[in-house]
Specification:
This protein is mainly beta. The protein contains 7 helices and 40 strands. A hairpin with a 6-residue loop joins strand 34 and strand 35.
């Protein structure tokens, strides 16, 4: 088996002009690294963007943004008739409708980092009353030897989840570490820096978390403008734990703000783990050895078009601060939209560590074939364990909170039919190979009934489906991901393991049968009590969007240089819905509302009134220069403070 150290040496010898890969033998499990390759991180200057600023369409009334001068005048102040969305920053400038191509030309000619799903920024980023971050005490963490860790992982042959970080035990609180500073208004800020040389990212586990009202906790990447938070008293849970998403780089700052009149003695905050990453989830390193194999298919590619809903139901799941699998959000028979996520038992999520679950939605490549460039911004924390067993390799968890409407998730349907004489005549898999951006795979042959292929669960007779892949594959990190029947478009299985890879295309994978997991002796080892609490015993359940949430559909026909319809549903009849756009994820505040638009520096480009059915449709000409550019789109109903899902859309 090839060693990551050897790959590094070869890379140093031959440079970036080749793509090296290891060949792996047939192994019984999906726990080696089949996707080790050397990828050029594209350090060269960005390609020249055509100068599209002179397009006559930009000055025509009736184009996407109408008359710019009129728009600027009308958008200066927020009002029910002419709202302007304000950026969440120290200087809350009212947004104006501006030529989006001018903005894109400036932004897209330089590399842009992905942004976290940010709320109000930390005080240290805006205040002049705090000392420099360089003066904040540092907690030194062990250095991360990336190549050594990758070489160790490559030798694994036992079932288990993908490892992406090293957990480091600590015992830290604001009373034992860090630095307190007083603010002129009577407030206080506590900060502590963390540094792990060589780490690609960091995340934090608090096993005692209880904040008083008004307090705000942030996790801030020291190297760039990326933060997670604020976490507030609304995040207090009966189990007293908080596990954070990753932030990029090996240096981070934990910052706690207390408003005037709030005593530090009212804070219960104990940090007991910092996990130091080595898989470069953010793609910041010039060289990333562990990337998914080149045979994988980005879900944004045309092959994924018939499976857009199921793609939205698939998420990356991190837990314990250092482990990683894939899961699927499921519909239930009563249509209650409880947030059940299905994954594999061998991943190791149980009643205790389910509290540490962090779910990443929409971690996908923005361009077909890129196999990179996704954002980890759409995330949520916390879950409860509901059921699981090892023979069919099933785990069901329930998320602590409903996914934000802006994540645009889908509750997948399922199919528990299990006729060996009439199996599904193919299958489609959606997963996160090697912990990377979401991929889709296709099997064109009938599924075959087999025993558990990873050897867990004792007598596991006829518990699994087996197949090989005609397009795509699976890898470590794909564990727990679903396969769907092309006939019913329902989920029929979840990945246990196998030998398939880009380097062994004839290898097979086995998936636990949804039908077998349906039944069992008690509710804690079967699915039916959770997904069919009324005992109606359906064989199939169709998937669905959550009802009642403002929903923005993809523009039609989606072609630049033509009139496109921007349609939102589930709006309040008679209400005005505003349509906004941008190019970067982040947050933009909606004046008068507690919610935010999940686009940084969001700009309004038009509005429409909802009809009696709650549908609001805006028709605008999209400039031809927008062709091929990735835009973020969202709808806002300020009267009810409703925000739609966020679309990432490329006009053809």
């Amino acid at each position: 088996m090839c060693n990551a150290l050897i790959l590094q040496t070869l890379y140093n010898l031959v440079g970036k002009f080749i793509n090296l890969s290891c060949c792996f033998g047939r192994l019984p499990f999906r726990y080696w690294w089949p996707a080790i390759s050397i990828l050029d991180r594209d350090n060269q200057d960005s390609p020249v963007i055509p100068n599209i600023l002179r397009s006559n369409e930009m000055s025509n009334r009736g184009s996407l943004f109408g008359d710019i001068r009129t728009a600027k005048e009308s958008m200066t102040n927020w009002s029910p008739d002419h709202p302007a969305v304000n950026e969440t920053s120290a200087s809350r400038k009212p947004l104006q409708v501006v030529p989006f191509l001018a903005l894109l030309f400036v932004l897209l000619t330089v590399p842009l980092p992905a942004l976290a799903r940010q709320g109000e920024p930390p005080l240290s980023s805006t205040s002049q009353d705090l000392t420099s971050v360089a003066s904040v005490p540092v907690t030194a963490l062990p250095a991360v030897e990336v190549t050594t860790l990758l070489a160790k992982d490559a030798k694994r042959t036992t079932p288990g989840p993908l490892t992406f970080a090293v957990p480091v035990p600590v015992q830290i609180s604001p009373t034992s570490h860090g630095q307190w500073e007083d603010l002129p208004d009577g407030g206080k800020v506590w900060r502590l820096r963390f540094e792990s040389p060589g780490a690609t990212d960091l995340n934090f586990g608090f096993t005692r978390f209880r904040l008083p009202p008004g307090a705000k906790l942030y996790i801030i990447s020291e190297a760039e403008g990326y933060f997670e938070g604020p976490y507030t008293a609304e995040d207090n849970e009966p189990h007293f734990q908080l596990w954070t998403p990753v932030v990029p780089g090996g240096k981070a700052v934990v910052e706690l703000f207390l408003p005037a009149g709030v005593s530090p003695q009212t804070v219960e905050l104990e940090l007991t783990q910092v996990a130091t990453g080595y898989l470069d989830l953010f793609g910041r390193s010039e060289l990333s050895l562990i990337k998914q194999g080149s045979c994988n298919i980005d879900v944004i590619c045309p092959q994924g078009e018939p499976w857009r809903n199921e793609i939205r139901s698939t998420a990356a799941i991190a837990f314990g601060g250092f482990l990683f699998c894939t899961g699927t959000l499921l519909a239930d028979e009563p249509g209650t939209f409880r947030n059940f996520v299905l994954t594999a038992d061998h991943c190791g999520i149980g009643p205790l560590n389910a509290l540490s679950v962090v779910v990443y939605w929409n971690f996908e490549s923005p361009v077909c074939g890129q196999l990179d460039g996704g954002s980890l911004a759409d995330n949520q924390i916390g879950a409860s364990y509901r059921a699981g067993r090892s023979d069919v390799d099933i785990t069901l968890i329930e998320l602590s909170t409903t996914p934000s409407p802006s994540f645009n998730v889908y509750y997948s349907g399922w199919d528990r039919s299990n006729n060996p004489l009439s199996p599904p005549l193919g299958s489609v898999g959606i997963h996160h190979p090697s912990g990377d951006e979401k991929a889709i795979s296709f099997n064109l042959d009938p599924l075959v009934t087999v025993n558990n292929c990873i050897g867990t669960g004792g007598d596991s007779t006829d518990t699994h489906w087996e197949m090989d892949w005609e397009q795509g594959t699976t890898e470590p990190g794909s564990s727990g991901s679903g396969i769907w029947s092309p006939d019913s478009q329902g989920l029929v299985g979840f990945l246990s393991g196998g030998s398939a890879s880009c380097f062994f295309p004839n290898g097979t994978d086995c998936y636990g049968k949804f039908a077998v997991a349906w039944d069992g002796l008690t509710p804690d080892i079967r699915l039916k009590d959770w997904l069919d609490p009324n005992g109606l015993d359906p064989v199939t359940v169709h998937g669905s969007d959550a009802p009642g949430a403002l929903t923005l559909a993809s523009p039609e026909p989606g072609v630049a240089g033509q009139v496109n319809d921007f349609t939102s549903t589930f709006a309040t009849p008679g209400a005005t819905v505003y349509y906004v756009y941008g190019t970067r994820t982040g947050s933009t505040a909606i004046p008068g509302c507690s919610g935010v638009v999940d686009i940084r520096n969001a700009k309004v480009f038009g509005n429409a009134m909802a009809d009696p059915t709650g549908t609001a449709q805006l028709s605008r000409t999209v400039p031809s220069g927008a062709q091929g550019l990735n835009l973020l789109l969202q709808a806002v109903e300020p009267g009810s403070c409703s925000v739609s899902n966020r679309l990432s859309f490329v006009f053809q």
